[in-house]
């Protein structure tokens, strides 16, 4: 999950280093009601209903 959120930040050069990226990733996760302990999980580790393909848990 962390990489999914971090990739656009890094690609668009919105952060200067990994530490800054991680801080922004945590802030975004909290804003989206994603438990920060889930940031290390892979998207397939989240249960999704009937093939919705959502990368966000419970969304």
Q: Can you describe this structure?
A:
The protein is an all-alpha fold and 59 residues long. It has a domain at 2-33. Helix content is 41%, strand content 0%. It has two helices and no strands. The chain is globular. The mean pLDDT is 83.
Based on the model shown, name its key terms.
59 residues, mainly alpha, 41% helix
What secondary-structure arrangement, pairings included, does this model have?
Blueprint: H1 2-11, H2 18-31
Quick summary:
The chain has 59 residues and is mostly helical.
Poorly predicted runs of 5 or more residues: none
Instruction: Please give the largest β-sheet.
Output: none
**CA radius of gyration:** 12 Å
Query: Quick check: average pLDDT?
Result: 83
N-end to C-end Cα span: 14 Å
Which percent band covers the strand fraction? under 5%
Give me the strand/helix succession: HH
By DSSP (H or I, 4+ residues per run), the number of helices equals: 2
Number of strands: 0
Which bin fits the share of residues in helices?
40-55%
What overall geometry do the principal axes of the alpha carbons give?
A: globular
What structural class is derived from the secondary structure elements? mainly alpha
